[in-house]
Amino acid sequence: MDYETLKLIWWGLVLFLLIGFVVMDGFDLGVGMLLPVVAKTDEERRVLLNSVGPVWEGNQVWLIAGAGTLFAAWPLVYAASFSALYVPFMFLLFGLFLRPVGFDYRSKLPDPLWRRWWDRALVMGALLPTLVFGATLGFLLQGLPFRFDSALRIHYGAFDFNWPLLLTCMGTALALLMLHGSSFLQCKTQGVIAQRCARQSRWLGPLASILFALGGFWLSQMRGYRIAEIGDLNSALTPLMKRVVTAPDGWLGNFMAHPWLWTVPALGLLLPLLSTLASHLGRARLAIVTSGGACAAMMLTIAIALFPFVLPSSLDPSSSLTLWDGTSSEGTLFIMLGIVAVLMPINIGYTLWVYWVARGKMSTEQVREQGHSLY
User: Fold this and answer.
1) In whole angstroms, what is the distance from residue 29 CA to residue 48 CA?
2) pLDDT tens, position by position, 225-250
3) Nearest alpha-carbon partner for 211 in 303, 124, 125, 298
4) SS (H, E, C) 217-230
5) What's the burial of 139, exposed, middle or buried (CB within 10 Å: 0-12/13-18/19+)?
6) pTM for this predicted structure
7) What is the DSSP letter of 146?
8) What is the DSSP string of 61-92?
């Protein structure tokens, strides 16, 4: 297997892990944001928390795996992105910190005020990561303010905020993950809670599609990059061993060059609407499959638009990092590929087993009968 093929494989693996996180942990975040909306009593809120109770920690493994993969496979991408986005990532971590303590401490005391404050913490623990993830995708599309000097030292500049794009990306993330959470709750709850979730889906699906289309419009108005010249893709490259120019079609160049790729953003537009329709018809499983598919399609749309770029630079286009020049050595990628070949099937198999064991619906009756052992 040559170096160029390894680079492509690792681009696919990183994308797979990030999509896995959005799909698997996305409904957890959606449930957290829906907590005060579809659960009106303490027992109903406990139903929501315990519907994701057996799986939410395992779902966050996808995020940990994705960050670890960036560090090992794309060290320059890891260094540049985590430094440039230090402040929003601190908000992300703060939000993620609120989730485990919120789950563990909320029901320790019966005091309504105690539980109400922990409910707010759980909502913030879902809202903050969702907003940061949406904003991060917006920053990727507009480029981060970094550049490399001749010694490959990274220098940073000030952000030039594209507020229409950023706000649209954050709004899309909110609507999409709330739709995904609503679809999940329709599978895991019954009665009035499931009915409220179905009502929420009526507007969340169309809103997600509208905002995704609006994001596409803003993207079409932006400059994009293309590689005009680069060294041997099968060799070790540095970020400055290429020449990058502004693309006439912006970030839509890949779609223009390969029209069949338009099916991906088309699915991103259509699947949220299908999820809403499935909820209206009482087809909960179809609703969550289509909302999860919408998450994957939207993430894949961004990846295709940027390809082969993975971290564009707004200061110096030629300093932008691509899958060809932001990777680790050939030996590192090959060894890690072997590790992934062993661990990934174990992770997927364990995840499937947990979901099988935790199948079934959660109800207020179960909360009353088993309350001492539940969240």
Assistant:
1) 12
2) 999 999 999 999 999 999 999 888 88
3) 298
4) HHHHCCCEEEEEEE
5) buried
6) 0.94
7) E
8) HHHHHHHHHHHHH-HHHHHHHHHHTHHHHHHH
